[in-house]
Structure formats: structure tokens, C-alpha cells
Amino acid sequence: MRIAVLGLGAVGRGLLQMLAAKPELGFVLTAVADSTSARIDPDGLDPVAILDEKCGTGRCAPSGLSAADVIASGAYDVLVELTPTNAMTGEPALTHIRSALESGRHVVTSNKGPIATDYSGLAALADDARVALRFEATVGGAIPVLHAIRDGLAGNSYSSITGVLNGTCNYILTRMDDEGLTYEQALTEARELGYAEADPTYDVRGIDAAIKLVILANTCWGLGVTLDDVAITGIDGLTVDALRLAATQDCTIRLIGEAVPAENLLRVAPRVLPRNHPLVIKGTLNAIMLSTDMAGEVTLMGKGAGSVETASALIGDLIAIRDRYDGSG
Amino acid sequence: MKLEMKDSPGQLVAALTPISEFGGNIIAVIHQHEPESSSDTLGVQIVLEIAQERLDALVAAIKLQGVSILRLGEERLLHRQSVIMIGHLIQTDIGDTIGRIDATGSAEVAELNVHMPAIAEPSTALITIKATTRAEMKRALDLLRQVAAEKGLLIVEPLGGAEA
Predict the structure, then answer these.
(1) Which residues lie closer than 8 Å to B48 by C-beta, 6 or more apart?
(2) Which domain holds residue B116?
(3) What is the CATH number of the domain that holds B96?
(4) Please, what are the domains in chain A?
(5) Residue A247 belongs to what H/E stretch?
(6) Nearest to residue A329, comparing CAs of A133, A104, A71?
């Protein structure tokens, strides 16, 4: 199966490293693009050579070609869209994904923007073209929650989804709880360790978690909801005293995304949870609890970020596509 | 509310039927046979929750079924839930915040633990609300949320429903 990779940030480089390390997977890299250059070879590119060039020059090719040329070339079976997320417009990924689906190519993405802004439209395009659109890497990093919803727990109906969907917030709250750090101290520490962006607004105000909640709700129930439908409260107003007071009740505080369709509820907010609750996890981990009719409550927990961890989710999607749509190509 | 009655044939069914008709929620039915007492004076205890305003009508309906109620114990505020409130709690009149919950008549603030770090800093409180029913607890929390929004306070609620 031939794959084209758009985006060579941490996630794209992680995927190329794993393709190089695991040739037995049998994927042929036929095109790559970063923000300023692209390289296409229908006979296959060497991921290691691309990584070396990117590392040395900051680009994956001298010049001339772009991501649009990669899409137009058609020299791939699956487009792997890994450009940076724009939660408001979904671009440029939205255009990339639409073009690929319209030309009958499968799409795998880690990009939350297009899935959160136009899930219904993209899903309809994929249906019309009878191709797959998979986005396991958009939610919960390495945790195979979308696989679990679609395959492992298929046939169940879901009454609610709750989860810790942002590792940065979970790290900050863990440190405030364990060490009595103030919010500012814990945020500074998270920045120094590379767990928080220079501008942490998306994370600490709950927007990133809300986008993931939208993706989960749309995958699980096909609701067609968007970010505007989520009631969002971040963690930036929390005090150490709040965690101390929760501790007097043998509880702690975590940023929780909660979707309950029967109550028309889509909410991201800091919540008080008993310490022995399955969603009380430490550090940058993520966890998602699915309430189902047959299986009861199922909780998945694991690493919510990281380049190789995200590559795991991408490769899982690629293999699922190959298994379903034959392995020729 | 706790209801105790004689254990004679048909009494239990006769007592239970009106409870569901009046929208009550049965929490437990405790049926004890004590070997040393004579069988016709044995007690059946029913623990149930029901909105305050429907209680008198329910008791009347049970009596109409020919059930004799031996004792009626009322624990009005059965449900309790704690939430954390953060912000300028004192400056935004915490007395008023509490008063508005208490004014509902079906819920009240039972405990309040306030931490005040420094004059200009936001303070944090653990506030415990008791309410007569699950529905009244939900209404009290909706009201608290509304008051918090008016006063610019942050509310951190527990995940999951009210404690029993």
C-alpha cells in the first residue's frame, strides 16, 4: 500500500521513523511534503533519507513542489494528513483531505481541526467515494479508543463518554495535588518539561479537550456537533485550596470532558472525583470511560501524546484500511 | 422518609402501589420476622423519597388502602452533595449566595468551609448542600450555577450524581 505523508513536524517524523524501523509493515512511502517543499517518487522514497534531509536543511526537498502537488499526483493509496491543527477553520488540512477523498483516496489524519469542524461533510465524501477516513490519532494519542468504539465494542449502544482528554492539564492538576504547587508554578514546570506550549491557552482553557470531546461524540453517536456546542471551563482559575478542600473529602480535581446525549450534555470542566475513580490518573496520561449497554463501563488509559505514540495510532489506522480494502496497491 | 406498618396479608402491596402513583422512589423495603413476637404485630419498614408537597396526599392514599401506618419518620434532606466554589466569595456576599439556596425550601447549605489566602486573592470554599430529593438537588445546583455566573465565581462540581 502506497502512502503520502503531509506534514513533517514531530508526528510526521515519528511516523517516518517507525516506517523505517518496521519495514515488515509493508507500507511504501511515495510522497512527502512539509510546509515549504515536497518530494514524490512512485517507486518509493527512503524514510531515513527524508529524515536526514529534513534534519539537515529544515526541508524535505530542495524546492519546486508543494503539498498540493502531492495530492494532485495521485501517486498514493492513503493520504496521511499531519499538518498543524487549526481548530477554527480546519485549514489547510480540510482542503487536503477533501481533495484526497474526492479523488478516491483513503485518508488517515492526526489533525483535529478538519474532523472537529466538518466531520459530517468529510464522512459523506468518504462514503460517496467508498474510501476510509480514519482519525484515531486525533483523540487520546496512542489509546485506541476509536477502534474500540467502532470495532471492539461494536453493537453496544453508548449512554455516555467521560474522559481526561488533555495531558497538559492532567499534569498541572497532578502536580498541584501531589506537591501543593500553585497553578502558575505547575504551568511553568509543565512548560520547562515541554508538556505545555509557549501559549498554553488551548490546553488550559479546555479548548483542546473540547475538540476531542466533539470528535468522540461525532464518532460515537454521529451527532454532527461542533466546538460551539460544548460548555467549556478551563483549569486556569483553580486554586491550590480547591485541591486541598477536595482532598479533605478523599477526592481530587481533574479536567473532565463529558458527553451524555440523553441529557443534551457536552461539557468540559474541572470536576471533583473520588481518588479511586478510574479517571483519576497521574501526569500526562489520558483516560476515556465509555458507558455501554452490554459491556458496562470500559475505561481505556494510556499516553495521550508523543511522536512515536501518535505513530502507533496512525499505523493502526493504516493497517485497518489495508485489512479492509485489500493489500494490493 | 421511613414508614412502618403492620405485617398482615396484602398490606405491603397495598402500601407500595400508591407510592409509585405519587411519583415516590422506594429505596428499601425491610421486612423483619422476629421469632419471639407474635406474627400480626411485625413491622415492615419502607424507606422512600418523595417531593415534600406530595407527602400528605401519599399518606392519605396509603391509609385509604386500609394500611395502618405505625410510624412515619421523616429525614427531610436525604441527599447531600459537596461542590467547590472559587472567587471573591466574601465580596460577592456569601450570605446572599447561601440564602438563595436556603430560600428554595427544599435544599439548604449544610456546611461551608472557606479558605482565604490573602485579601486580594480569590478564596475557595467547600460548600455542602442537602436536598429532599434528587430532583431538588439538581434544581439547587442549577440555581448555584446561575448565582455563580452572576457573581463571576467558578464552580467545581463532582462527576456523577448526588450522593445518596
Answers:
(1) B1, B3, B19, B24, B25, B26, B27
(2) 79-156
(3) 3.30.70.360
(4) 2-142+308-324 (3.40.50.720), 150-303 (3.30.360.10)
(5) helix A240-248
(6) A104
Residues B145 and B124 both lie in one domain:
yes
| CA–CA separation, A251 and A243 (whole Å) | 8
Contacts of A206 in chain B (CB under 8 A): none
Q: Is residue B161 in some structural domain? A: no
Residue A212 annotated among the catalytic residues of the structure: yes
Give mean pLDDT in consecutive 10-residue pieces for chain A, a chain of 329 residues: 95 96 95 94 95 91 88 95 89 96 97 93 96 96 96 95 97 97 96 89 96 95 91 96 95 97 96 96 97 97 94 97 76
Q: A245 vs B125: CB contact, 8 Å cut-off?
A: yes
* Bridge pairing between strands A78-81 and A106-109: parallel
Q: Does pLDDT of B42 surpass 60?
A: no
Give the Cα separation of A209 and A267 in Å (integer). 10
Residues B46 and B85 grouped into a single domain: no
Cell numbers representing residue A27 in the block: 507500507
Distance CA A29, CA B124 (A): 55
The answer to whether the Cβ–Cβ distance between A245 and B113 falls below 8 Å is: yes
Given an 8 Å threshold on Cβ–Cβ distance, is B84 in contact with A269? no
Residue with cell 502507533: A312
In this structure, is residue B162 part of a structural domain?
A: no
* Local structure of residue A255 (DSSP, 8 states): E
Same domain, B112 and B129: yes
Grid coordinates in use for B57? 396526599
β strands within chain B, DSSP E: 2-6, 25-31, 43-49, 69-73, 79-87, 107-115, 123-131, 154-158
> Which of A182, A272, A273 would you mutate first to test chain B, the one with the most B CBs within 10 A?
A272
Whether the per-residue pLDDT at B160 is higher than 50: the answer is yes
ipTM score of the complex?
Answer: 0.82
Contact call for residues B25 and B137 (beta carbons, < 8 A): no
Q: Write the burial class of residue B38 (CB in 10 Å: 0-12 exposed, 13-18 middle, 19+ buried).
A: exposed
Q: What is the pTM of this model?
A: 0.83
Q: What is the model's pLDDT at position A4?
A: 97
The count of residues in chain B is: 164
Among residues A22, A54, A112, A212, the one annotated as catalytic is A212
Grid coordinates of A281: 490518573
- In the block, residue with C-alpha cell 481505556: A300
State how many domains chain B has.
2
Radius of gyration of chain B (CA): 21
Q: Is residue B137 part of a domain?
A: yes
Q: B157: which chain A residues are within 8 Å (Cβ-Cβ)? A: 269, 271-272
Cross-strand bridge partners of residue A292: A158
CA dist., res. A309 & res. A319, Å (int): 16
C-alpha cell recorded at residue A296: 458496562
